[in-house]
């Protein structure tokens, strides 16, 4: 799984769920409280489904490490 690079909006790093695969975006949406997903304006465009990069990074590490450990256990 490739990690997204954040966009700086109002000095805060954010990512768009639209940048993820459908499966990853759905997984992340089910994990997040709905209030953490926001629409933001950046350079005159409205970006939908934005979350803080910090939240995304935590989810990415948790999701990536869990699947890695699971695959490692099955290899034995």
């Amino acid at each position: 799984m490739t990690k997204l690079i954040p966009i700086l909006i109002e000095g805060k790093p954010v990512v768009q769920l639209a940048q993820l695969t459908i499966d990853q975006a759905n997984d992340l949406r089910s994990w997040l409280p709905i209030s953490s997903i926001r629409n933001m304006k950046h350079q005159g465009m409205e970006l939908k489904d934005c979350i803080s990069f910090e939240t995304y990074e935590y989810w990415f590490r948790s999701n990536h490490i869990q699947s890695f450990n699971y695959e490692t256990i099955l290899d034995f």
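The mean pLDDT is 85. Strands lie at 7-9, 12-16, 38-42, 45-52.
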